[in-house]
Amino acid sequence: MKPIVRNYADRIRDFLISPIMAGRDQDKRLIQTLAQNNLTFQYRQMLKLGLQMPRIDEVGFSVYSESNEDGILHYIFALVGTVNKELADIGAASIKHSNTANLIINQGWTGLLIDQNSDEVENAKRFYSRCAATRLFSPRLVCSRVTAENVNHILTDNELTGEIDLLCIDIDGIDYWIWKAIDCISPRVVVVEYQCIWGPKESVTVPYKPDFKAGYSGRFGIYNGASLLAFVKLGKEKRYRLVGCQRYGYNAFFVRNDIGQEVLPETPPAECFKHPFTQWARKTFLDQIKDKEWVEV
Questions:
Q1: Residue 13 lies inside a defined structural domain of this protein
Q2: Distance CA 240, CA 93 (A)
Q3: Cα–Cα distance between 213 and 110 in angstroms, integer?
Q4: Which of 296, 252, 284 has the alpha carbon at shortest distance from 271?
Q5: DSSP character for 128?
Q6: What is the number of structural domains in the chain?
């Protein structure tokens, strides 16, 4: 019987599939960090040699993220580099579904995590204080409801100003208005959750209300957020371009226009609606919310 031979990339990805917890898992974290560093080296060598680079939909993996966001962010920063490894995560939620925990734990990033759920904030504080990689310098965690009026104050009060590497926004509500209001930082990469049920051609958002309350159907947030095209237009105003989305088509990745145009070109919004999930979500939920109050932008 012939031995099964797997390529180097397959072996690396095997190390990236299970979350890190405690105790002897410190060894797993070391392996994951080394594996991700090797992937960075691979991507940069391919770029240097002028080889065809993989597409965004080919590089995803999850360590802590809900879907494959960890791998996409890893790929983007492997290509465009970092300036300070600082991030702001608004709506940080739990460690289990975090888009930033992998960067903080396995890549040595720092930053500010904001969530209005006090239980989640306390759980995250405990986790980072006990994690070997972060117990000496944990990320800053703030429990607060974020509005257009206070978001810049929260950021500056926590020493985030000027250029940072990453901004994530996922609050299942007035996300569009939060990104629009932010002007105290200039993130190089932005990740936002969008409402895939609107498809690629509608440019709408929920109206701005500081006390906005989302409407839910099952485990999916329905009446909240904004369509992808709304975010694309806002990104253009702020000089960002859409470069892709995660596997299921509801988290979008934007890169500032002065960075990496040649390696991360702009992606048409329609490219982010190819997964069957987006079609199912549109058919299942659009009729439930299309007559609610939406604002064209």
A1: no
A2: 25
A3: 30
A4: 252
A5: H
A6: 1
Residue 101 structural domain? 83-296
3-state class percentages of the chain: helix first, strand second, coil last, to nearest 5: 35, 20, 45
Residue 22 within any structural domain of the chain? no
Size of the chain in residues = 297
Q: Is 154 helix (H, G, I), strand (E, B) or coil?
A: helix
Asked, for residue 197, whether it belongs to a domain, the answer is yes
Q: For 104-111, what is the mean pLDDT? A: 94
pLDDT digits 0-9 by tens, 59-99: 999 999 999 999 999 999 999 999 999 999 999 867 889 99
**Residue that the structure tokens 């990745």 belong to:** 253
The residue with greater pLDDT, 23 or 247, is 247
Per DSSP, the three-state class of 114 is: strand
Compute the distance between CA of residue 169 and CA of residue 192 in angstroms, rounded to an integer.
5
The answer to whether position 30 is within a domain reads no
Q: What is the pLDDT of residues 190-204, one digit of tens each?
A: 999 999 999 999 999
Interhelix angle 69-80/25-48, nearest 10 degrees: 50
**Using the 8-state DSSP alphabet, how is residue 172 labeled?**
S
Where b means 16+ CB within 10 Å and e means fewer, 8-29 reads eeeebeebbeebbeeeeeeeeb
The pTM score is: 0.90
CATH number of the domain at 271, please.
Answer: 3.40.50.150
- pLDDT for 218 equals 61
φ, ψ of residue 192 in degrees (nearest 5): -130, 145
